[in-house]
Amino acid sequence: MSSRTYGATTITLPSDTELQMSREFDAPAALVFEAYTTPEHVKRWWAAPDVEWLACEIDLRVGGSWRWAFRDADNNEVAFRGTYEAIDRPARLDHTEIFEPFPDEVSHVIVTLDETDGRTLFTSVSRYSSREVRDMVVSTGAGEGAAQVFDRMAELLIEIG
Amino acid sequence: MIATDQLSLTFAALADPTRRAILARLAQGDATVTELAEPFAMTMPAVSKHLKVLERAGLISRGREAQWRPCRIEPMALEGVDDWLADYRQLWTERFDRLDDYLRELQRKEATSSDAPNRIDVDG
C-alpha cells in the first residue's frame, strides 16, 4: 500500500474500519515506548499544553487498564480508557481504547515501534467496530484543514484502496 | 468546503472495493463502461450500477454527447475527503510534534547526565 506523507505524519485508511497513523522519531524505540507508557511522559505530549490533567493512569501489564483524562481550555472534560492486550517492549503494544461518552464502542489499537539506526518509526493502527464509527472518529479531529492540491488525488485513492 | 451530507455520500460510494478500483482505473484516464467492466469480470448492468453510485456522489461524470458516454473522474469530490482527513491529521501532527520535542528534551537530559565527568549523585 502506498501512502502520502503530510509534513512528518502519515495518515491512511488501510481498510473500511481502520485508521493508521505513522511518524518517525529521532529517538530509540525504548525511549518512545517509555514516552507512550509512563504517566509523567504522556502528560507532556498527548494533550495540548494548556489542558488540566485529571487522570493519567497506566497499569502496564496484560489485562491492566489505562485511563487518560483532562479538562481542555474550553472547560470540556475529555477522557479515554482501555486495557492492555499484549506487550512486547519496546517493539509492540496492543490495547483497547474507549472514548468515555461512548462506553460501548471499543476500538483495538496496535502500536508498533520499528527502530533503524537509532530512529524509530511509530505506527498505530486503530480498528473500529464499523466504518461509520471510524469515520465519526476521524471527523471529530477538529482543526485547521491544510490547503489541498489536486495531484494528491491518485495517491489518496491508493491510500484508501 | 464540501457539505457534510455530500461527504457521507462520497464515503458511502468509496466504501465498496469495486468502486474504489473503478476510480483507481479512472485516475489513469477516461474509460468507457465496456473498458471498465473488463478487468472486474462483471456484467455491464452491474458496472452501470456502481457508476451510478459514483456519479451521484460526484466522484465521476459521464459524457453526454457521445454514444459510448466515457467516464471521467472528478477530483473535487476527493478533495473533500482529503480535507476531512486533514482535520485528523492536524490533531495527530500536533500531538506527534509535541512528542518529538519531548523525546529530544529527554535525550538531551540523558546525554548531559551521563557525560558529566564528576557527577555527584545527590539522591544517593
Notes on the protein architecture:
The complex is a heterodimer of chains A (161) and B (124). Chain A starts with 8 loop residues before the first strand and ends with a helix. Chain A is globular. Chain A has helices at 29-37, 39-45, 131-139, 153-160; strands at 9-12, 18-25, 52-58, 65-71, 77-88, 92-99, 107-116, 119-127. Chain A has 4 helices and 8 strands; from the N terminus they run E-E-H-H-E-E-E-E-E-E-H-H. Chain A is of the alpha+beta class and 161 residues long. In chain A, strand 6 (92-99) and strand 7 form a beta hairpin. The relative contact order of chain A is 0.20. Chain A has an 8-stranded antiparallel sheet with strand order 1-2-8-7-6-5-4-3. The model of chain A is unreliable at 1-6 and 141-161 (pLDDT under 50). By secondary structure, chain B is mostly helical. Helices cover 65% and strands 5% of the residues of chain B. Chain B has 5 helices and 2 strands. In chain B, strands 1-2 form a two-stranded antiparallel sheet. In chain B, a hairpin with an 8-residue loop joins strand 1 (60-62) and strand 2. Chain B is elongated and about 75 Å long. The interface between A and B is large, with 43 and 40 residues.
Proportion of strand residues of chain A: 35-45%
- What does the main sheet of chain A amount to? 8 strands, antiparallel
Low-confidence stretches of chain B: 119-124
Task: Classify the fold: give the CATH topology of chain A.
Answer: Alpha-D-Glucose-1,6-Bisphosphate, Chain A, domain 4
Order of helices and strands of chain A: EEHHEEEEEEHH
CATH homologous superfamily identity of chain B: Winged helix-like DNA-binding domain superfamily/Winged helix DNA-binding domain
